């Protein structure tokens, strides 16, 4: 078990760790109780109820693992303590579902980035998502060149029901969503990205940051 800073605290500094996980591995993220009157000191011991997700049978659905945890500790998930359990399972994507391009930090490369994405959307049969994807990539690559440090890495990922776009750079400055006024000449790019995609966010690494967006590719039922 790796012990880090509890979620929900204002402790911003933390140490990163890398792990090699096989396909189908189950990851359990646990935050101990942090409710009013609860000590904030960290307890490095694994909660007894968490042992139920240590060695699950291969392919066991995550909701079944969740039910196992709740059955072994009825108080978990039903108190105001702030205790949290997040379960995730690793899944390897085929190589043809992930495409990455390293781009120079040059404003002229934005048009190239749009063309690369447009061609990949055609290969995947996602032409309907092409316009929005090109606009998103254009905004993110432009921001990376204008406000961050190069080089820039562009990656698109086709999941089962989603299309993920990632733009990475060497800066650790997080972008901020702005609400531009009528007379402002700029400041609408990230707001536009947020409106056109279902989800977006930022993650950090030792070499910089990555801004990602997610678009649903399944037609509405």
TrEMBL record:
Keywords: ATP-binding, Kinase, Nucleotide-binding, Serine/threonine-protein kinase, Transferase. SUPFAM superfamilies: ATPase domain of HSP90 chaperone/DNA topoisomerase II/histidine kinase (SSF55874). Residues 103-212 form the Histidine kinase/HSP90-like ATPase domain. Pfam families: HATPase_c_2 (PF13581). The keyword Kinase applies. GO terms for molecular function: ATP binding. CDD domains: HATPase_RsbW-like. This is ATP-binding protein.
